[in-house]
Write a structure and sequence with these properties.
The chain is of the alpha+beta class. The protein has a single domain (2-174), classed as Aminopeptidase (3-Layer(aba) Sandwich). The chain is built from five helices and eight strands, in the order ββαααβββαβαββ. The protein has an eight-stranded mixed β-sheet, covered by helices on one side. Strand 4 (70-83) and strand 5 (88-95) form a beta hairpin. Helix 4 (105-120) packs across helix 5 (135-144). The longest helix has 16 residues, at 105-120. The radius of gyration is 16 Å and the shape is globular.
């Protein structure tokens, strides 16, 4: 487990899949994700089985928060497309439980993942893609240390129109952990 002050990251279990299917079928949650079609439990189980054959560093982690009832899964985060030669990877995150949106948990989880990427995995650059229509997420990423690197003009089709995809990154040499989480 990767522990922070407000969140912790843990491995995904098969028992988590029903919650992911619920979240990934919520149109509000999907608006910020690359997933564009409804997901069945069978599809999610196939994803889980395929994921287990990938390198362990690319397995997504569950984002949990400590509540009076115990630890509660609210989303997930993971590294993908790890390029060991260039020491870089893409990160993806979502908070699926909307009760915990806009409370800083996503930023906290991202800081934990960046700490893991830079100091455990030895990566030099972490990047992500975010839709221009999701300024809340872009702001959260900036607070975690990401800077705007570029834009894929009309790189995504959503709700009947093309939107830009923003490319953001953070380098190990410029990242300030400051024991944020």
């Amino acid at each position: 487990m990767i522990l922070g002050k407000r969140t912790r990251l843990r491995g995904i279990e098969r028992e988590d899949l029903p919650r992911f299917v619920e979240w990934l079928n919520d149109p509000e949650v999907l608006r910020g994700l690359m997933v564009v079609v409804p997901l069945s439990m069978a599809q999610e189980q196939n994803w889980f089985d395929a994921m287990r054959s990938r390198p362990v560093e690319e397995h997504p982690l569950g984002i949990e928060i400590d509540t009076p009832e115990g630890w509660l899964l609210i989303g997930n985060i993971g590294m993908m497309n790890i390029d060991w030669r260039s020491r870089q990877a893409e990160v993806g995150i979502f908070i699926g439980d909307k009760r915990y949106w806009n409370q800083g948990y996503g930023r906290d989880a991202m800081v934990l993942m960046l700490r893991h990427a830079f100091f455990s995995l030895g990566l030099n650059r972490v990047y992500l893609r975010v839709y221009e229509t999701n300024p809340r997420a872009a702001h959260s990423y900036q607070k975690a240390g990401f800077v705007l690197e570029g834009r894929q003009r009309q790189g995504h089709f959503q709700d009947g129109k093309f939107i830009d995809v923003l490319l953001m990154s953070v380098l190990r040499s410029e990242w300030q952990d400051n024991d944020q989480v």
